[in-house]
Structures are given as C-alpha cells and as structure tokens.
C-alpha cells in the first residue's frame, strides 16, 4: 500500500495518491477516501510547514506515524512518499529527515540521470549517512528515456549511475541501484531487484 505523508497545492484530493492508484490499477480505497493515506492536504503550493501555517494548522509527526501504524494493521508493506526532499520542513524545527530518524524508517531514494539530479542525490546520501538512516535502495528513474538515445544521453545515464554507486561505496551504504524504466518496459531484473529489497527490509 502507498501513502503520501503531506501534499501541498491540492485543495481537494491528493494528486499523487491518484497517480499511485492508477499505476496500481485500482480505484481509490477507503483509506484514500477517509484521508488516512494522506492526512495533511493543503491548497497552497509551498513548503509543508508554510502551507500548514497558512491554513491555520500544524503538522504533527506523531499523527503521521499513527496513521502509518493503522495502515500496517491492514497491509504487509506501506510505502510513504515524502514531499520535496529530506531537508523539507514539516514544521519550522522538524524536517522529513528528522521524521525518518525519529521513527527509524528505511529510505528508498529516487534519482535520475537528469541535469541536477547528482547534486540532489549526493546531498541526500550525505544526510542519510550522517544521521545513520538506513538506505534500502536507490531507484534510478529512467522514465521518459527511450531506447533511441543519443550518445551524450547514454553517457549521462551511465555516468550518473556510476557516480551514485561510487558514493554508496564511499559512504559504506549497502544499497542496490534499481533501474526503473517506463511501466510497459519494466524488466524482469527490476522486479527481481525490488523483491530482493523487500526481503532485506523484512529481515531487518
């Protein structure tokens, strides 16, 4: 099952949850309709802490964790999607990284070969390593990259993947890089890698 911890810029329903269910091939669930899958939804498209303030609310991390625990009573696995990155503040003094550290959640970090991704990815790896937050995997998102790539594009894909692998080794982070193609092209290797990751998470 998937959930969104907080979403801004959506006054009525979580756009990301709608995408999740479409990719899963299912309708919205009861948990979606009652707000359990996205407990904080704000109309203004800005940082969660500011969106909450503008709405006259305060994001309570314990409430997010409680909702996750309720979902875990019904589902074997619950994936939590953040909003913007590890350093995004939920409150003025509390970031997503603080939340992950406090509740000891492992992280699946999404990266890509697009311009700017190396900086974001390496910064995220540094934060996780410094805070001793477990990294379960790096999903290397190749969505939108076709089979007929130019030589420069092929080089960017290979180089970015190599840079990420190098820093995983440098930071002594035991996490696999999973190449994720567009849904119709998801490979057997990708599915096997996801299964390995889930088995490692289940084993603790």
From TrEMBL:
SUPFAM superfamilies registered for this protein in UniProt: P-loop containing nucleoside triphosphate hydrolases
Enzyme category, top tier: ligase
UniProt key word ATP-binding: yes
Cellular component GO terms, alphabetical: cytosol
Domain of life: Bacteria
Enzyme Commission code: 6.3.3.3
InterPro entries reported for this sequence: DTB_synth_BioD, P-loop_NTPase
Keywords on record: ATP-binding, Biotin biosynthesis, Cytoplasm, Ligase, Magnesium, Metal-binding, Nucleotide-binding
GO biological process, alphabetically ordered: biotin biosynthetic process
Record bears the keyword Cytoplasm: yes
GO molecular function: ATP binding; dethiobiotin synthase activity; magnesium ion binding
Swiss-Prot/TrEMBL catalytic activity: (7R,8S)-8-amino-7-(carboxyamino)nonanoate + ATP = (4R,5S)-dethiobiotin + ADP + phosphate + H(+)
Gene3D superfamilies: P-loop containing nucleotide triphosphate hydrolases
NCBIfam families assigned to the protein according to its UniProt record, in alphabetical order: bioD
Protein's name according to its UniProt entry: Dethiobiotin synthase
Protein's gene: bioD
